[in-house]
Every structure is written in structure tokens, then in C-alpha cells.
Amino acid sequence: xxxxxxxxxxxxxxxxxxxxxxxxxxxxxxxxxxxxxxxxxxxxxxxxxxxxxxxxxxxxxxxxxxxxxxxxxxxxxxxxxxxxxxxxxxxxxxxxxxxxxxxxxxxxxxxxxxxxxxxxxxxxxxxxxxxxxxxxxxxxxxxxxxxxxxxxxxxxxxxxxxxxxxxxxxxxxxxxxxxxxxxxxxxxxxxxxxxxxxxxxxxxxxxxxxxxxxxxxxxxxxxxxxxxxxxxxxxxxxxx
Length: 240
Fold this sequence. Notes:
With about 240 residues, the chain is mostly helical. The protein is about 85% helix and about 0% strand. It contains ten helices and no strands. The longest helix is centred in the C-terminal third of the chain and has 39 residues, at about 200-240.
């Protein structure tokens, strides 16, 4: 079997043009997930898992972790437009949900729902890794509980969470390939479109394979740089 190198050369620019879509979904998802994931983690750590809110959070996390991402994508894409359309009609708004809303936002929504649950577990484990004495030390020197959380606990927790955050980001980038189910022209969808003309699926998927490796490698290098700087910060703090 010989690869059609001319096809690969022609298809590559189209695949590269789709990279910003993948990056946007990933970045938007992480940004939108940060605050709710942190609040959920803080609630569970502070509440000890005994309250109703903590149990609801645990149920939500169990549902997300116990169902395939592709199923979550299909459910959200099948249900959300109909639900939004009912709300829009009830409010009497002149919006055509099925044509005016970019499917990209449905993708961001479903990936945010998924990532929030996973990210909250990362934050929770990172918070639990910070010794309880750190909170007591902050309160002893006159800081409020909130100030101790922000200036003492959170920086140490984020330092511990960086390796898991890197893994989450890489998995999220790979998971965004499911966005093509929603008609979004990400890297995977662009490859399918280009391959369909001459049935060059092997060449197209090989290029997608290489592009994902390149993107994920860059992300890992960036996180590795942050880890090194965080390590210097931690060392400086211990010396101080």
C-alpha cells in the first residue's frame, strides 16, 4: 500500500485551518469549568461529604464518570436545542434556536459539563494534599479563613494539581474530536470531508494523528514549564 502524498500535501492546510476550533473548544471549556469545579471541590472538602449539596455533587460526578463522553455529546446535542426552543417560545423571543445558535456552543456546553466534574475531583485531591496545619498557621498569623484559602492553600493545591491538570487538558483536546458529531468542523471533521472526495481516509487520519500528537506535545511542554516554576516557588517557600 502506498500513501497518496499529493493528497496529504493538499489536505494539510485544510486540517491546520481547523486547529483553532479545537483550541477554542478546549480553552473555553477549561475557563468555564474552573470556577464551578473549584467551588464544588471546596464545598466537598469543607463539608466532609455529609450535606445534601455534597451528595448532589457526588451524584453528578458519578454520572459524568460513569457514562461515555460520546453518549453525553449525543444526549446534549439531541436534547438541548429542543429545550432551548421551548424556553425561547415560552418567553416569546424572536430567536430560531435551530439556525441562529452555532453548534460550537453546544460542544462547549457538553465538554464543560464533563470537564467540571473531572476538574473538581482534581481540585479536591489537591486540596486534601495540603496539610491541615497550613490553615491553622494562616489563622494564627491573623489572616481570615478566606485569605488563608487564597494566599496559602490554593497556591499549594494548584501546584500539586498541575500534573493532573495537564492530563485533563490533553484528554480534553483528544475528546474534542467528538465535536464532529455536532457538525462542527474541527480537525477530525475536516479530515473526513477531505478524505471523502477520493476515499483517502488512511492518509487523512494519519495527518490527524500527527497533528494531535503535535498539539498535545506542545501542551505538555507548557505544563512542564509551569511545573518547574511552581517547583521553584515551592522550594523558595520552604526555605523561607
